[in-house]
Design brief:
The protein has helices at 2-22, 29-34, 41-52, 56-68, 74-100, 105-113, 116-148, 155-210, 236-247, 252-255, 264-292, 296-300, 305-353, 358-380, 387-398, 402-410, 416-436, 449-467, 472-482, 490-493. By secondary structure, it is an all-alpha fold. It starts with a helix and ends with a helix.
Length: 497
């Protein structure tokens, strides 16, 4: 355990020293919430990847690939589509963010639909939906510590170790805000997705040469895709890819990345950098897990494929490196989620009821982050069998923001009534359907509950756009916001109620 825990301790110390050297006191809430919109393309790409791919990717999708095979490759498709979406929306979102000092995803909704109360609703949905995933991230570190301890400690004790580590890590996230998150994301991202990809490729080679693994030796069921007559239904994979690709930018911790860049060009370059890294990394994780599925230890514990293969290939040294990569990717995901949650608590929840000055906003954000960290840590140490189901409900609910968000960015006719009605109907329907159909809606050929709710949400939003057309004043405001009226004063567009 000295080798495995020593490697983790050394890496954690490097991150802390790196953050201490990079420390800079924030001038205002904009510095704290979006790092003063000051980061270039490479920082942005690593920050996106470090939030997008948590350490659980090695556990959840590794286990899925080892047991279900090629269906797991939907991860690649929706991840690449998400990057395409980033490229498409970055222009307008970044420009609006810069022009109107937007700090959070709900800020964008408030600007587009001229409603501070809508900002409150979107903020609550984002925080509630994201919170279970923060807890799951902490629990994922428990599995890492369990295997780093060579399974010589109780799993519940391992979870406590993971929780304590993340609580300590949040000291720097609270102190430095988004700047600290992005700076650490850069180093953690290089370790996780560049170093991790190299290690994955090496392990694939080891499996093929040393263990004679090949796709030809795998059982046929690992190459089956749900279709007509299947248990899931022919539309199951389509629904997964569609909702995942759109839903990626509905998460507050992901969306705020659009506001931290120093220019639109940086965001577009970040997308270009992220795409090949995402493709290589994601494909390598899935290929490794599939090829390793024939190893007896993996067949017994598929979720542990990452730890098992590393230990068998390189002993404790490689197992320690595997743990470092898990730690690096998990810290980035949890840090980003907690930071965005704190910013929304200050800006979109408390800020909706009272006007805070810059220092008060920063203080409120810090208090919110501490509260979320401690609450999440407390819950993470409990045995909650239904936690994953709660997280799935949160996911199917938060993707309902896609309709008012993306149509609001690109369609002038969308209005406040549609944003309210569509989101509420979609969120409630997603929750109800997920309770009855946790994985997919069988009677609808395998469409997921989130997809069905999204379709109803879309119909309500479009209907409201035609039933309740813009008033002349609102028409001028929206066209001014989109820049379609020559000489329109942008201050008209920023008049948020």
């Amino acid at each position: 355990m000295l080798i495995t825990f020593g490697g983790l301790a050394l890496f954690f110390a490097v991150i802390v020293i790196y953050l201490q050297i990079s420390f800079r006191r924030d001038r205002d809430f904009g510095d704290y919430a979006v790092a003063g919109r000051s980061f270039g393309a490479f920082f942005q790409s690593m920050s996106f990847l470090n939030t997008w791919y948590p350490g659980a990717i090695f556990i959840a999708f590794g286990g899925l690939a080892a047991t279900a095979g090629v269906i797991s490759f939907y991860l690649l498709m929706y991840s690449l589509l998400t990057i395409v979406v980033m490229y498409v929306i970055s222009n307008r979102v970044w420009l609006w963010g810069k022009e109107f000092n937007l700090y959070t995803q709900p800020d964008l909704f408030a600007l587009r639909y001229d409603s501070k109360n809508l900002r409150l609703m979107i903020g609550v949905i984002g925080i509630v939906s994201q919170f279970p995933w923060i807890i799951l991230g902490m629990k994922a570190l428990g599995m890492m510590f369990y295997y780093m301890a060579l399974k010589k400690i109780d799993f519940d004790v391992a979870v406590i170790f993971g929780v304590i580590l993340m609580v300590i890590r949040q000291f720097w996230t609270v102190q430095m805000g988004m700047r600290g998150v992005v700076i650490s994301d850069m180093l953690q991202g290089v370790v996780s997705y560049i170093g991790g990809s190299l290690l994955l490729i090496g392990l694939i080679g080891w499996l093929m040469i040393d263990r004679h693994a090949s796709f030809a030796a795998l059982p046929d069921h690992l190459f089956e895709i749900p279709g007509f007559g299947s248990k899931q239904g022919p539309l199951y994979v389509f629904a997964l890819i569609f909702t995942s690709a759109l839903g990626g930018w509905c998460w507050p911790g992901i969306f705020v990345r659009l506001f931290t860049a120093d220019s639109v060009g940086a965001m577009k370059k970040a997308a270009a950098i992220s795409a090949p890294i995402s493709l290589i990394f994601g494909a390598a994780v899935l290929i490794l897990a599939m090829l390793a599925s024939t190893i007896p230890a993996v067949a017994k514990a598929p979720d542990a494929v990452w730890f098992i293969v590393n230990q068998q290939a390189g002993g404790l040294v490689l197992l320690s490196i595997a743990g470092i990569i898990i730690l690096a990717s998990t810290m980035g995901n949890i840090d980003g989620n907690i930071q965005s949650t704190g910013a929304q608590i200050a800006n979109d929840i408390i800020g909706d009821f009272t006007n805070l000055d810059e220092k008060q906003k920063v203080l409120a954000a810090k208090i919110g982050m501490v509260a979320i960290t401690l609450l999440g840590a407390w819950i993470a140490t409990m045995k909650i069998p239904q936690l994953f189901n709660v997280a799935v409900i949160g996911y199917q609910g938060i993707i309902q923001l896609a309709v008012p968000q993306f149509l609001g960015i690109f369609w002038l006719r969308g209005n406040r009534a549609g944003a309210y009605a569509g989101t509420i109907v979609g969120f409630v329907l997603a929750v109800v359907l997920t309770l009855h159909y946790p994985a997919y809606v069988g009677p609808l050929w395998g469409l997921t509950s989130g997809f069905v709710a999204l379709a109803v949400n879309f119909a309500v939003y479009v209907a409201c756009a035609y039933i309740f057309p813009h008033t002349p004043e609102e028409e001028r405001r929206v066209r001014g916001l989109f820049g379609d009226v020559a000489g329109q004063d942008v201050s008209v567009a920023a008049n948020v109620r």
